[in-house]
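Sorry, explain these tokens?

___
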Amino acid sequence: VYFNQGRYQEAEPLLQQTLELTKRLLGEEHPQVALSLNNLALLYLNQGRDQEAEPLFQQALELNKRLLGEEHPQVALSLNNLALVYLNQGRYQEAEPLLQQTLELTKRLLGEEHPQVALSLNNLALLYHTQGKISRALELLEQGLKVEERNLHSNLVAGSEPQKRKYLDTISGSTNTVISLHLNTAPNNPRAARLALTTVLRRKGRVLDFITNSQQILGQQLDPESQKLLEDLNATRTQLANLFYSQSLDPKSPKLLDDLNSNPTQGANLIYKRLPNLPLKYYQQRLNYLSEQANQLEDKISRRSPDFRTANQAVTLEAIQTLIPANTALVELVKYQRGSPRYAAYVLHSQGDPQGIDLGEVKLIEKELELFRLSIQDKDTPTAQLKQAARQVDQRLMDPVRQLLGSTRQILLSPEGELNLIPFEALVDQQQQYLVENYRFTYLTSGRDLLRLSQESASQTAPVMLGNPDFDRSAGELIANQDHSNLASADLTRSIDLSTWDFSPLPGTADEVKEIADMLGVDPLLGGKATESAVKGVNSPRILHIATHGFSENAPNQELPTLYDNPMLLSGLVLAGFKQKRTGAENGVLTALEAVGLNLSGTELVVLSACDTGSGRISSGEGIYGLRRAFVIAGSQTQLISLRKVQDKATKELMLAYYQRLLDDNMGRTEALRQTQLDMLKDERYQHPYYWASFIVSGNWRPMGGVGR
């Protein structure tokens, strides 16, 4: 455990004790001794202590050969590890035959498709890479990555989502290798560029893509057993979410242990304020049970359909390029490791080879990102100061990318890491113009999204418009018509602190939803009708629009022990009846975890007109764990989401203008937002990016067509 965490000083004495104890109890001639020698040597190798590692690896190799025979996987592993010592020391002539022996032995003993074969191929490629033999290195890397892809494809079909992510982590080393080889050794080699970007497209957002495709396949071919599994999984998620945000728990109730599914990272903090004497072990017991139950159900659902295997074939650059429109570029931003973590960008047009460029160290870029984010989320930040912060980020990220874009002005942008949390439209170029003035951005989790978006068909079900929920549900439907003129709507934001349990109605959402519903010719769901059950009951509406308070926590609460850490519980929307005592399966909070189970197959547009609906926990290679992810998995084609707090009145104005363009001008879903932003930029009231750069479009950018009456 310490070794995997990089806590080498704590690991070393334990590994030394293990070796001594094993020798004493089992004798010098035992396979377990060879294993202990190998583990201690690996520790030294990771610390750069090659001279101490070498004799231990040699002893392990000789011992394994003597005890297990020349033809054994442990012998192949020992050969590999000794070769890595030689490689680190620049002793290439000694390393090469050992790595070749390792590869041949591994293939012979374990088969051509074994993960150890991929490791051997990749290590041999690393040797040739280090020697500058790029063609040979690329040839071996292609073979190794092909084996990893086949194994990844097979392993994604089983297991829960956390297990799928962990499996992807096991092959992250080769992703770093192929990107580093291209950018730092062979930047002008088209073969290296193609291999690097192909690897990125096959791995970035892969779990999200698999789960989304699988859920849609299962929804279309639902047999009774699959239906039962999905219902059970949704019910389990609802139990977690309800108690996570429960307000009224009776510690004397016999149902407490059955219902107590709070997450201490956030929800337990709320509950502890009300039940300070409740033993923590009750949380642990119930959380463990429900967590395991959810994982088992996810695993069973993953295995249900044989179509999952054929629906998730390997991605090719050619397949992606055919889906990139003319005068458009896919920009993949990636994070890779070369010593310290770094950002890079790959640009792919509809024709030609991809181009890549290193953008610099993550820590330097993210330091400037933080300043920009702080500047843009405060409407009182002077424009000159904000533009300076935006220009610094642009210099780091988009100046280098523009060199590869040429005259292209439409960008399909797939961010990575912290880059998911900024609006690129608000960056500032050399001419002191916001990028929105010259570029059109559509956000994707990965370029592989284009494959799914190209296959979608539109639902014919009427739009659903929901807003201004009655959080008390004391006034029923009347709240929709109440006079809120005494509220300072210019200062209201659509965000809340759930721990206070006290937040105001949003008059702008009532007007917003009424007017848009009138444009679309549907009846809005307002006040007491704006419920969690109403959202959960939707059946693939063409448009789903929700205007209310939103919330998102990016990190767990460090003051409480983490018993169950699911980031999809930390983002959500607040709906009618939240302040009322919970009844049945509804508590007035729709978490991202629950939104995953919505039926939105064919839904062309989801508008989450609230704060922080595009935020959440960042997962390397998988984007944001929050509402954005949930509504993608649920089947929606496009999401209009916010990256931070949004002001009530300005958001209403933005939304009305956005829909007007969708309807009257039949604009694309991205261009309609861009034109709305440009108009706000010209309006003295809203020209600060705080107002116009809050929302982004993620997913399908094309016109919807026929969304009105």
Q: What stands out?
A: Confidence is low (pLDDT under 50) at residues 247-278, 474-490, 556-564. The radius of gyration is 27 Å. The first helix runs from residue 8 to 26. The CA atoms of residues 127 and 266 lie 48 Å apart.
